[in-house]
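User: I'm writing a tutorial on reading structure tokens. Could you give me a worked example: one chain, its sequence, then its tokens, then a sentence or two explaining what the tokens reveal?
Assistant: Sure. Here is the example chain.
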Amino acid sequence: MKSSVFDLYLSEFLSSIKQVYIPYKEELVFKEILFSKDFKSNDKIVVSHQPTLFYPGVFIKFVHLIKSNFNNKLIVFNDSDKFNIQILDKSIESEFAYEKIPFYYLKEFINIIYNFFKDILFNFKVYFNKTEFIDNFSFFIELIHNIDVSNFTKFSDFIYFIFLKYFEYFGKNVDIEFDLVSNISKTNEFRSFFYDYILNYRDLNRFYNDAVNMLYFNEIKTVRKILDNELPFWFISEQGFRNTLYIDNNRVYFLKNEEKFYIDIKDDSILNSIRPKAVLWATFRRLFFSNIDILGIGSSYYTFISDYLTSHYYLNNFCFNLKKTDIITATLYPFNYDFIANYVSSLDSVLSIVNGILSAIDYNIENLFKIFEKLSIHFKEIEKFLNNELKGLLDKVYFQIDSISKKIPKDLIDYKYDLIKKISDPSNRKIKKELTKELQKVNNLVKANLDNEVNLLKELVLKLNKELFDYKVIVGNKLSSRFWPFFIFNLEDYLKLFNN
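And here are its predicted structure tokens:
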């Protein structure tokens, strides 16, 4: 294959990954990079991702795979990645690789997400703009709760089970192959691929860093350079920890507490524990079995490096059968996107008025009831989304303000405003200081005999202010998150994105 053809392809690839972006409104972002138009119905179309609880931005890759017209569809879970589940603003992490997650941890994880999902549904279903979203969420919460984990040997089995149940739930028959990086890494093809890298690591590491430099030059700095003696492979320990491999005088080792542990790469048990890192997994996949590769934005950066390695080294020994790469992501919310900004803005207005009440307690206590009426109007805009605790706190504030307002002497208020008028009159400049002191006395008299009630009101309003602010942060973070569980949404919601 002529290098000029690949140079043109790499240039198009780089241009494409600069054009894609993470959408924050409901939108599908899609870019097709063609290497060849010679498609056949039996071409293998592949999606690879960590076995996590997908959010729409990831799940759209699987929908794209399923709706494609190719007959040969494959999902590969990269179970050598470190366990990390992101759901809304909650992150569940472990130092274990997915493939080594212990059985007890799976049971614990299911219990954690079951309770988390229940809380989310209880607190956030009021925001959902389709009743089907509540039904979908409820179904999968109970499905997860009632799962018999003894049916699973790996965490990936659990995720694939949920994945298949989703399509079954929406009446879609799914005919897809399924595999794991941990399985593929034990094949003879992968072992040969690993040995070849070791024999030529100096050249390959140089090409690797050349590609990273190209990304850096184009302001893409998400992938680090590889060290001269580093190998882009993991050694997965028996305990499930991932260890970067290095090479020293043709001997392969990993570091633990800065101590070198050499491994025998001729030993089958050792070879069975070696996994490719992201770039080399993309290289192996695209050289050995993927004709059409579906990527997310993040993996497109690694894949550019892998194709650079292919063009500068692997084409000498391997046939490149990849025909196209699709980069795809999407964002879906279970409510109208504009609602988020409006809702947070309404909360800001309420917080501003609450701060006005605090100011009135100190300087204009007679205005409390008027300010509270304004607060009540704004509160109605968000009331149905608030929990009972916040509503109860507002009722207590109202009761306290009403009680105080009824005890404020009207004649003192009239006198106060008369003093304010005199202070504002330029002709009273000479006696302004005395008038101001008198005003302070009147303010104190207005609150005389109300100290206990005023202090209680201040305590209640400060608590309301804090609770509302915390609520705004929590709700705002969750509502604006792209990491909603994929199964909340109807399959049709994903398919519609392709038509917009």
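What the tokens reveal: The chain has two domains: 3-190+277-334+484-497, 338-479. Residues 338-479 form one domain.
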